[in-house]
Amino acid sequence: MKLRVVCKDENLTDDELCIKCELCIGKDLMTIIEMMNEEYKIDEIIIPNCETLKRILNMD
């Protein structure tokens, strides 16, 4: 299953599994992603174009 991470200013959609990032305001995104993975077996994480988020998730 895919998990879409959207920026705090974007709206969530009903047709896919989404979470709001809010990393820039101190939200613990890694714990939320780990919990979502336990529940839904995430195989792909789709993120916005955010250098901070890419660094935290170790994505190049």
Low-confidence stretches: none
Number of domains: 1
Q: How many β-strands, per DSSP?
A: 3
Amino- and carboxy-terminal Cα gap? 21 Å
Q: Could you tell me the strand content as a percent range?
A: 15-25%
Strand ordering within the main sheet: 2-1-3
Task: Provide the structure class.
Answer: alpha/beta
Spatial extent as radius of gyration = 11 Å
Order of helices and strands: EEHEH
Average pLDDT rating: 87
Give the count of helical stretches: 2
Helical amount among residues, as a percent range?
25-40%
What kind of sheet is the major sheet? Answer: 3 strands, parallel
Q: What is the 3D form?
A: globular
Description:
With 60 residues, the chain is an alpha/beta fold. The protein has one domain (2-57). It contains 2 helices and 3 strands, in the order ββαβα. It has helices at 29-40, 51-56; strands at 2-6, 17-20, 44-46. A 3-stranded parallel sheet has the order 2-1-3, with no helix packed on it. It starts with a strand and ends with a helix. The model has no long low-confidence stretch (mean pLDDT 87).
List keywords for this structure.
three-stranded parallel β-sheet, 60 residues, globular, 20% strand, 30% helix, alpha/beta
Topology:
Blueprint (H helix, E strand, L loop, with lengths): L1 E5 L10 E4 L8 H12 L3 E3 L4 H6 L4
Parallel strand pairs: 1-2, 1-3
